[in-house]
Amino acid sequence: MADNLFEGLPPPSAIPLPASSPSSEHEAPEPVPDNIRQSSPVPASKPILKSALKRSKPTESDAQATTPKKSLKFKTTTDASETQVIEAMKKISSHIKTPAKFSKASKLAIQLIQAGSVKSGTSDYFFSVLEAAMSSSIPCTDPSVRADYYALFSEAQNATEHFNRKQKNQMTTWTIAAVVANDLYTDDSFVFSKAAGRIKEAISNLPVATEDDDVDEEVSLKHSTGNVDEGDKMKQDTPLVSTAKDNEEEADPFGLDALIPGSTKKSEKTKGKNGGTIKTRKEEDEEETKRFLKSQREALISCLEIAARRYKIPWCQTVIDILVKHAFDNVARFTARQRDAIGKLWASIREQHILRKQGKSVSGKLDVNAFEWLQQKYASEKISIRHSVGASGDRRAQQWLG
Description:
Blueprint: H1 22-27, H2 34-39, H3 50-53, H4 60-66, H5 82-95, H6 102-114, H7 123-134, H8 146-155, H9 165-183, H10 189-205, H11 211-225, H12 227-237, H13 244-251, H14 264-273, H15 277-309, H16 314-329, H17 336-357, H18 370-377
Organism: Senna tora
Protein name: Nucleolar/coiled-body phosphoprotein
Region (Disordered): 1-78, 211-290
């Protein structure tokens, strides 16, 4: 048998096809010459990508056109009316006095501030909330409510634009008592130093105390000591049977009859009082200024006392030294009794400062902070122009060839 089985046979294109039906003649392809087949090969078909087989995503316009509009929205805020806000503030002011309810009530008050509910029409009711908070039996520096007081009065600074002059002055005093004083209990030296700076600034802004301020202070102290005795006497001296004059006052307790144009006598009385309205306003302004300065001085004295109690902590001592020294230098801005208190405080701080310089303290241990230790170390140290080249600051260079 030969090696090539197809030897001597014509090529496949030259083989005659068998006869077929007329329909098959039209379907039979014509023979392609070899030179054409070799010169122009049929290009291979490109592979179909899988991404082309995926269904195209409908656009937003098509989706809105095909699907019906169904949306579910949740209402996250409630638009409360002014009447509802006032009622809420009244409830908060009645509960915030109770120490057990102070935390929850203060948080509700903060929510009212953040919601923008404190406006010109509701500012007086919100001020009554703050006033009730400061009239609580527990002081604002108590550890149990310290954080809540700090958060409430820090947030209340954003609502002072709606307060009047008297309310703003009172708010300044409350801020010193509830925010600055609580900052003095911190464990952060930066916050403590910032609070001391605010106290120093407030002391510098105080006017010089006058003799009238000293007299008013003595009168207020006498009034506070004899207030209990006078209250008992008033209870004993009050008659049990009301007179005719008392009945007339009870009939018009608020003096509203003078505003009704009914009687000529009352209208004449109001005309006679119109001339003194300007004087009374000036007197009221002066009294408000005195009251504001008095309350501010008392708040600053309490801050100095709080700072003095923390003098045992080493990192607080330098800041307290500077703070009390500043108060002693500006002692003329305080009243007589407050001047005596600041003088005693400065004498105590100065004595402890001298003991710390000597390395002594009440406990018998070395009570020197890091600043003072470095101050003593480098007080007699010689530093050369080559930045401490040499052991004692001389100019002999020491090379380490290690």
